[in-house]
Amino acid sequence: MRHVSLWPILVLVLIHLLGTRLRFLGGLPRSVWLSGAGGVSVAYVFMHLFPELQEGQEHMEENILWAEEFLKHHVYLVALIGLATFYGLERSVVSAKREQKKKDSRETEAPKGVFWVHIGSFALYNAVIGYILFQREEAPTQSVVLFTIAMALHFLVNDYSLQEHHKNKYRKYGQWVLVLALLVGWTVGYLQGVSETTVIILTAFIGGGVILNVLKEELPEERESRYWAFLLGAASYAILLLSL
């Protein structure tokens, strides 16, 4: 029977279920903890995930003939697609909320249809992260710990963003959908492996998504974000990664 570590997936599940209940993280100006968490996530992508993707790029060029000929930076193109995808989703939600508010100035939630599209997209995102998490079972424990910490803090940032957009609908339905998707992705990883090329592509897509989902929360002026907290989180995790 294959030995499986359950603690990483349980940590991510608990973040989804309990993260938004931490009231000290809410409100304006933006919590220093959320800004710091975003900094950690971005540092992990740039210092750990992207170097892995460079190795993945070499693997793809050796194993997929058209990758070298047509797409010299194929892996990074996938990361760009991930970033662009989540940027498009965010813009659609913001636009839908703006239109909804024109019709009813008291309405602060995104329309129901937009809610399910948004949550469905993040469910796919979570499923991929769950799958990648299981694939790291065979990696050194240090690698699993670093990935789990970065994704846990990233989920915290995402949860507060989704709750802000969708209010009670997120607490009532959304968080459960995301937990289920995370578990489904992890379980698929346990039951059925895929090629290394597929894992590389999925990881690149998630890397682009992480960068966009963090920065879209930090940059808007109305967030009153704490740049120093973001910088401290990013610098601290970068130093940790360099020292290991």
Q: State the shape.
A: globular
The secondary-structure class comes to mainly alpha
How can the largest sheet be summarized? none
Q: What level of helicity do the residues show?
A: over 70%
Indicate how many domains the architecture comprises: 1
Unreliable sequence segments: none
- Order of SSEs, N→C? HHHHHHHHH
Integer average pLDDT: 83
Give the total of beta strands.
Answer: 0
The rounded Rg comes to 18 Å
Our measurement of the CA-to-CA distance between the termini, rounded to an integer number of angstroms, reads 31 Å
Account of the 3D structure:
- It contains 9 helices and no strands.
- Helix 1 (7-18) packs antiparallel against helix 7 (168-191) and helix 6 (141-166) packs antiparallel against helix 7.
- The two termini are 31 Å apart.
- With 244 residues, the protein is mostly helical.
- It has one domain (7-12, 32-243).
Helix and strand arrangement:
Blueprint lengths: L6 H12 L13 H32 L1 H6 L3 H30 L8 H24 L5 H26 L1 H24 L4 H23 L8 H17 L1
Helix pairs in contact: 1-6, 1-7, 2-6, 2-8, 2-9, 4-5, 4-8, 5-6, 5-7, 5-8, 6-7, 6-8
Question: In a nutshell, what does this entry contain?
Answer:
By secondary structure, this protein is an all-alpha fold. It has nine helices and no strands.
